[in-house]
Amino acid sequence: MRVLIIGSGGREHAIGWKIKKDNPDAELFFSPGNGGTKDLGENEELVSIEEAKNFAKSQGIGLTIVGPEAELVEGIVDVFKNAGLKIFGPNQKSAKLEGSKAFSKEFMTKYGIKTAESKTFRHFIDAQKHIESLEEFPVVIKASGLAAGKGVVIAEDKFMAESTIRKIMVDGVFGDAGKEVVIETFLKGFECSILSIFNGSTITPFITAKDHKKINEEDKGLNTGGMGVVAPNPSFTEAHMQDFTKNILIPTQKGLIEEKMKFAGVIFFGLMVTENGVYLLEYNMRFGDPEAEALLPLLKNNLLEVIKDSIAGKELKLEWEDQHSCCVVMASGGYPGNYEKGFQIRGLENVEAPLFLAGVKQTNGKYYTDGGRVLNVVGLGKDLEEARNIAYKNIQKINFDFEYYREDIGKSI
């Protein structure tokens, strides 16, 4: 089969790696891809959805998999389906569950999904008045639209909250994503990520994962796209899973069916586990990054067959290795702010663990930094400690100028 994978990050490299591992004869194309995907197939510069559709038709692509959220929100799935092409991902209506936090909050409320209390504002003055009326802090402020994983701020006091909404709604630090904001009650607990696959009628969950969003150790500093992931999440118990299934997964499934949001694709549940149970923070409607890098090496099933079965509406049964994974992200110094790129990456050939490149370009067989999050090293072990040790042992074999990575991924869980 010829497969087109849309995206350029470590997630897309991991998807391609898993497909190629299970199906050596598969022909892979990536748009635009990166320096790692170039080793698995062909990178193509398809600059629009229309161009991607035409490429898929002309090249006999049997399946397209969409990695990033932007193309999903723009409606790539609808365009491909209307052209008679097979594609894995939510249609534009369903992608709005990620593309608009205001819309997703309305959906959660309508179907009784356990989530934090919130209010949505489209005008700065109204949001400011609401903050003035609040007596309890911190509060969570979210840019409603897509902000590359960085549009959520925990405001510790009234001054910080007012400053945040001004930056988002007036100064436009997140562009159009901040035209609407959601202000919600702060939930205290630990986070958990659960990816799942929807086949149009049933949601089948993956094993759990734990993302590390902050740039600095001990989860301090600015939010990033993710600095590392461990799976399964050691803090998430069977009781938590039952709570999640009853109060979040099942009503989500019911809502999707009733709203006629039928698709084959991924639903990512971002959860907060508190002393009062499990709450849904947000939906993402695609494989997480770097969650995909941590989870796909543990999946026993043939990913291509799973995707084909979900598109056909067949019942899915996922099987997992009896192992733990620890994914550590190497980033460019200065990320998520300003950083330099173009530095040669050395030592990749010495890594003895799954390795997924992200912000990397390849020129004449050499690899150079080309983004904020540069690459992902994944340790696999019988327990989390062994997985951590393998990840960090291998990450030390890699070097490039101004490299940065957290040394505590999975340590304080």
Automatic annotation (TrEMBL):
Keyword vocabulary terms for this entry: ATP-binding, Ligase, Nucleotide-binding, Purine biosynthesis
Enzyme class: ligase
Pfam family name, one: GARS_N
Cofactor(s) listed: Mn(2+); Mg(2+)
Keyword ATP-binding: yes
One Gene Ontology molecular-function label: phosphoribosylamine-glycine ligase activity
One GO biological process term: 'de novo' IMP biosynthetic process
Domain ATP-grasp: 105-312
Enzyme Commission code: 6.3.4.13
Domain of life: Bacteria
Biological pathway: Purine metabolism; IMP biosynthesis via de novo pathway; N(1)-(5-phospho-D-ribosyl)glycinamide from 5-phospho-alpha-D-ribose 1-diphosphate: step 2/2
Reaction equation(s) it catalyzes: 5-phospho-beta-D-ribosylamine + glycine + ATP = N(1)-(5-phospho-beta-D-ribosyl)glycinamide + ADP + phosphate + H(+)
PROSITE patterns, sorted: ATP_GRASP (PS50975), GARS (PS00184)
InterPro entries in the record: ATP-grasp (IPR011761), ATP_grasp_subdomain_1 (IPR013815), PreATP-grasp_dom_sf (IPR016185), PRibGlycinamid_synth_ATP-grasp (IPR020561), PRibGlycinamide_synth (IPR000115), PRibGlycinamide_synth_C-dom (IPR020560), PRibGlycinamide_synth_C_sf (IPR037123), PRibGlycinamide_synth_CS (IPR020559)
Family: Belongs to the GARS family.
Protein name, UniProt field: Phosphoribosylamine--glycine ligase
Organism of this sequence: Candidatus Ornithobacterium hominis
